[in-house]
Amino acid sequence: PWGGVIVLSFFFALFGLAGPVARIGRVRRALAADRPARARKALDGFVMRDLSRIDDYGLGRAATERAAQAFAEDGVGALFWYGLLGLPGLFAYAAVNRLNARAGFRADGFAHAAFVVRRLAAALNFFPARIAGVLVAGAVAFAPGGRPGASLRAIPPHARKHRNQAA
Hints:
By secondary structure, the chain is mainly alpha-helical. The protein has helices at 2-14, 18-32, 36-43, 56-103, 111-140, 148-159.
């Protein structure tokens, strides 16, 4: 009976979504209050781009893209690999994603290793990212004026544009 509790503990320890949700909330509140400097501060270190030249729309877009990435990787991806391979799959997936987050984009002197880690992370996230897209498109049906069909049609042409999903 404790096996499920232990697995859930590992899952939440490795893939807590509370941090990204809280940070994206801070960005939303800062933009709503017309405080782009606060939004930049909330996004600093959370997104891998230069925020100094991005306008309010770009800050909102960066937060939205990061929210989608967190949902796909930290939520759907972790559940996907746990469901497919159990705890070993979950730990391997977590290790690759953590390496990608830490060294994948800032790998001075380790460009070849960073390339391999990025490609491996992209391959591991290929199916979870698309599953997450379908889940989000389904959730659009519950939003006022939502068009889930249009959301589903938008997935294929845009899926390969994201640098992490180009594998």
